[in-house]
């Protein structure tokens, strides 16, 4: 079995790392490059940088941050937010990103997934899905969680895989920032129908929540933000906790 991955996520707004609750009420969490270096040194397996207002405001993800992150960290990192073309992906990869994450642009133009996979390889293309459970159905949202679509979580994830996505990054908007645990049932549904890795996101508050994501939700990786940004969970301690529970993990 492949080792499970621990992934700190850095939501970037106006050049600073921020963290909110249910995609609103953001507070500053520090410099994104310095935090990335800290997590790299602490034993994180990967990083994700999301320019969280790029789609909503119609801006491009800034290349300069990617260059500075690439100079400062020694682990793979993914960049997302406002990516809408193959040329933009090319620029981000040339600046040092290892993978890119697309969300709103993929829902607007699903063939973008295929275009990226064919040009750069599917391992580069992470399709992020922000979804909320409305009346028992998981509805996909775009524009940083501000606008619902007609797409449903599982069927959209399947289409993304068929079009060439290398991974699915699923964030439960209901669970985001509230620290009550991941959306385990939805994660397990995705695991059961997909053959590509699924990254759990939204709701982590304790080390047990990570364990649950891997054992109950069958996630391949777990992403979190505030518990790392505000020193509530230490990555080294977390990995030792998971290893003691026989969850395959890379040691820090």
Describe the structure.
With 252 residues, the chain is an alpha/beta fold. Helix content is 37%, strand content 28%. The two termini are 18 Å apart. About 5% of the residues have low confidence.
Task: Estimate what percentage of residues fall within beta strands.
Answer: 25-35%
Secondary-structure element order, N to C: EEEHEHHEHEHHEEEHEHEHEHH
Class of secondary structure makeup: alpha/beta
Total DSSP helices: 11
Shape: globular
Helical proportion?
A: 25-40%
Number of β-strand runs: 12
Order of the strands making up the biggest sheet: 1-4-5-6-7-10-11-12
Instruction: Give the terminus-to-terminus CA distance.
Output: 18 Å
Mind telling me the C-alpha Rg? 16 Å
Could you report the average pLDDT, rounded to the nearest whole number? 88
Q: Tell me about the largest β-sheet.
A: 8 strands, parallel, barrel
Low-confidence stretches: 20-27, 55-59
Topology (SSEs and partners):
Elements: E1 5-13, E2 16-21, E3 24-30, H1 32-42, E4 47-51, H2 54-57, H3 63-72, E5 77-80, H4 86-95, E6 99-102, H5 104-108, H6 111-120, E7 125-134, E8 137-142, E9 147-152, H7 153-163, E10 167-172, H8 184-193, E11 198-201, H9 207-215, E12 221-224, H10 226-229, H11 235-244
Parallel strand pairs: 1-4, 1-12, 4-5, 5-6, 6-7, 7-10, 10-11, 11-12
Antiparallel strand pairs: 1-2, 2-3, 7-8, 8-9
């Amino acid at each position: 079995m492949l080792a499970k991955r621990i992934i700190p996520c850095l939501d970037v707004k106006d050049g600073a790392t921020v963290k909110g609750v249910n995609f609103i009420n953001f507070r500053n969490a520090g410099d994104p490059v310095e935090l990335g270096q800290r997590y790299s040194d602490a034993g994180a397996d990967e990083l994700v940088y999301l320019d969280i207002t790029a789609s909503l405001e119609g801006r491009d993800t800034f290349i300069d941050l990617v260059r500075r992150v690439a100079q400062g960290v020694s682990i793979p990192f993914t960049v997302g937010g406002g990516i809408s073309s193959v040329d933009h992906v090319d620029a981000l990869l040339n600046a040092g990103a290892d993978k890119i994450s697309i969300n709103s642009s993929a829902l607007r133009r699903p063939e973008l997934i295929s275009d990226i996979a064919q040009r750069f390889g599917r391992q580069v293309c992470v399709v992020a899905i922000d979804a909320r459970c409305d009346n028992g159905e998981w509805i996909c949202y775009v524009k940083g969680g501000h606008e619902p679509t007609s797409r449903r979580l599982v069927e959209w994830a399947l289409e993304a895989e068929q079009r060439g996505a290398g991974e699915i990054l699923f964030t439960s908007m209901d669970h985001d920032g509230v620290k009550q645990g991941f959306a385990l049932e939805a994660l397990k549904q995705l695991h059961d129908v997909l053959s590509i890795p699924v990254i759990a996101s939204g709701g982590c508050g304790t080390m047990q929540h990570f364990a649950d994501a891997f054992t109950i939700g069958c996630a391949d990786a777990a992403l979190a933000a505030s518990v790392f940004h505000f020193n509530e969970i230490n990555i080294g301690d977390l990995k030792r906790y998971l290893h003691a529970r026989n969850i395959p993990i890379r040691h820090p």
